[in-house]
Design goal:
- The protein contains 13 helices and 15 strands.
- The protein has 341 residues and is of the alpha/beta class.
- The chain has 2 domains: 102 residues, Enolase-like, domain 1 (2-Layer Sandwich), CATH 3.30.390; 229 residues, Alpha-Beta Barrel (TIM Barrel).
- The protein has an 8-stranded parallel β-sheet with strand order 4-5-6-7-8-9-10-11. A 3-stranded antiparallel β-sheet has the order 1-2-3.
- Helix 1 packs across helix 4.
């Protein structure tokens, strides 16, 4: 088969809590196209139905996508029909992988990027249920280059207390992510208090549906606040334009943007607008994460630790060493099925 799509069930080794809810497993999609592999993540809070994603992929013409060797990548991606972002992301990643494999080169080299110039990745901490859980999570993390603490407990005072507790446990650089849990009023009151603990950045403080509220939040905050990064509010390049002057940066994710091509557009546009770039992820296997890491030299910050939450990653790809990412020395994105023992 030239084109296949299947459900990829990823079990987590411990429950992962964020403002949107708690997960013990995630269902993604895996696409095989020619020699390429692609993955699309379907976090429940984005509302993409698995059947719609599968139907989109099954409706594509594999012969047309693979008619030329190597395929005319840009034209094919521009001509993909509209559809759910995770479906387009999986196809886009698989097509990029096939293209680079046929050329015998890793993606970063075809883009002229240097993988040694990528920043370290954050290590994400889910919302702990109690202090002992937080201490157990932090204990094995020796001198991490960046910690990312999930907030959004439903109580801003508890969120602030969590930051204070982490600060009492470690002096590592810290950023926080509320996943849109605070109202405009709560964010305006809480962010100056969080600033006292010198977070590297504060991510998605207000709900995604309130894009105009970002500009009002900016006017309500005093000068000198930590950078504000938009995630759920920044799904496409058009969103980046709307957020310019309000958010200091955007979190670019392949499954949110619709693949590598749109992610590169978002990064280019953010740079043109003097905005920071955080390259992020969902809970994904090494297929999605390794593909994203090829863009890492273009980012200011990385949050590509999604595979570290998995009980069993079915693929080999990028590796981590205390936040430092190494890409595999293989053509394409380099993620391949893990050999069974």
């Amino acid at each position: 088969m030239k084109l296949t799509v299947q459900t990829l069930t990823l079990r987590l080794h411990t429950p992962f809590r964020i403002a949107h809810g708690t997960s013990t497993e995630r269902q993604n999609v895996l696409v095989r196209l020619g020699e390429g592999l692609g993955e699309g993540a379907l976090p429940p809070y984005y509302g993409h139905a698995l059947r719609e994603v599968v139907a989109y992929v099954q409706g594509l013409d594999a012969d047309a996508l693979l008619a030329t060797d190597p395929p005319p990548l840009t034209h094919l991606l521009d001509d993909l029909p509209p559809g759910p972002a995770p479906a387009r992301a999986a196809v886009d990643i698989a097509l990029h992988d096939h293209w680079a494999r046929r050329l015998g080169q890793p993606l970063y080299r075809l883009w002229g990027l240097d993988p040694h110039r990528m920043p370290p990745s954050a290590r994400t901490l889910g919302i702990p249920e109690h202090p002992a859980e937080l201490q157990r999570t932090l204990a094995p993390l020796t001198d991490p280059p960046l910690l990312k603490l999930k907030l959004g407990t439903g109580d801003p005072a508890r969120d602030l207390a969590l930051v204070r507790r982490v600060r009492a446990e470690t002096t590592a650089p810290l950023c926080v992510d509320a996943n849109g849990a605070w109202s405009l009023r709560e964010a305006a009151a809480l962010i100056p208090k969080l600033a006292e603990h010198e977070p590297v950045f504060i991510e998605q403080p207000i709900p995604a549906e309130e894009a105009d509220a970002w500009h009002l939040l900016r006017r309500l905050l005093p000068r000198g606040m930590p950078p504000l990064i938009a995630d759920e509010s920044a799904r496409t390049a058009d969103d980046v334009i709307l957020l310019a002057g309000a958010a200091d940066g955007v979190n670019v994710k392949l499954s949110k943007a619709g693949g590598l091509a749109e992610a590169r557009r978002m990064i280019t546009l953010a740079r043109a607008l003097d905005m920071k770039v955080l390259l992020g992820c969902m809970i994904e296997s090494s297929v999605g994460l390794t593909a994203a890491a090829h863009l890492a030299p273009l980012a200011d910050f990385l949050d590509l630790d999604g595979t570290l939450f998995l009980a069993d990653d079915p693929f080999d790809g990028l590796t981590f060493d205390n936040g430092r990412i190494t890409l595999p020395d293989r053509p394409g994105h380099g993620a391949i099925p893990r050999r069974s023992s």
